Structure formats: structure tokens, C-alpha cells
Amino acid sequence: MTIYTYVLAYKLNGRFWSLPMEERKNINGNVINFIKGYKKNLISIKYYKSIRHDNDVLFWAASEEPINLQRLKEGLNSAFGIYGKTEYSMFSLYEHSPYTNASKSLEDTLKTEPKKYFVAYPMSKDREWYLINYEERKKILAGHIGTARSDKESPGIISYTTYSFGLGDQEFVVLYELDDLSAWSHVTEKLREVMARKWIINEAPIFVGIYNGDELVI
User: Fold this and answer.
1) To 10 degrees, what angle do helices 181-191 and 134-150 make?
2) Which of 21, 31, 143, 147 is the most exposed place for a label (fewest CB within 10 A)?
3) What is the SS3 assignment for 76?
4) pTM for the structure as a whole
């Protein structure tokens, strides 16, 4: 099975925030109703309130067909109407990593209940990385993975590496689900020490979302 993933960041404008609370709830209802009707076309969809200054809502969806993700964007645009628009998106391919052994199907990994927080960012590597032979790259990444998994604060952090070669402005989209932002920050800091960091040239912007329940987008 081929799985595509899509991260969409929406910004709500000043007109939305000036509306009475009841009208804002109605717009939230429009978005939720669209998602409920459309999710049959998707493998999964999760959504979060965004902490970033330049967007307010994050959607993370997966599908076997790219057209389903494009139509998701159209439906969300219609549900938000004049009150919001996309500010950023990341489209990628979700496949098994050549550097790790998979223990469950990719589809099953996406169908878990949302954790409290969601982190997503694009990533690219220096071209010199790809000139290193595969066995050496595997050894370098084993150090990275081992450091992450052995850290005392890493349990509860679920990671997804997806691929954007030829599909987006980045080479990878890296996604995480977690319940503790401080633990996540500490593990990330520790990983700055591993050799694999030498070849990373971009990891921005970073999006952090807060899960607010299935009935609340806004």
C-alpha cells in the first residue's frame, strides 16, 4: 500500500476573532461536520490548535490517493469560508524506513488515538550525505536511533519519518505525537550531540499543536 500524508496549517483572520462566540462555534461545527463526512476517504485525520504565531489550526491527514488530500483542502477552505486560509502545507510519502525493522503496518501506526501534542517540521540534508555508502549511513543512523530510544524521557514519543523527494520543497517531513513537551524538548536537545546531525541543513519551520478533542478544531 502507498500512503501519502499531508500537513495543513490554517490561519484565522481578524474577522473571525471579532465574531461573537456563538458564530465562532458555528464555524467550528462546519469544519467538524465536513471532516466527519469526508473521513471515509482517508486513512486517518487528526487536528490540533497551533501554538505558532502564524497559524491557528493544524490538520494531519493520510490517504492512499493524493486527490483525496487535495479535496480535503478544498473542503476545509469551504468550511472556513472567508475567515481562514492555509498558510503552510507539507505533502509527503509514508514508507518503511530502510534503516529500521518495521514491527507493524504503516496504516496501523496512523490509526492510533491522538496524543496530547503534535510536532511536525520539514527536513533536508546536505548532498554529501547521499554520497556516503549505504552501510555507513545505516551505522550513523543507528547511533541516532539508539540515542533517541535509550533516553529516559523518550517513552511515549511516537515518530514518523515521511519522504518528500520530488514532492515538496523539503526532502523529509518528520512528525511526532507525544504527551509531554518538556520531555520532547530534552530528547531533542540530546540528539543534537549525535553524528547524524552533521548533515542536516534545514529543520524549519517547526509546528507544535495541542489536541483539543474530536469536536473542537478552533
Assistant:
1) 140
2) 21
3) helix
4) 0.94
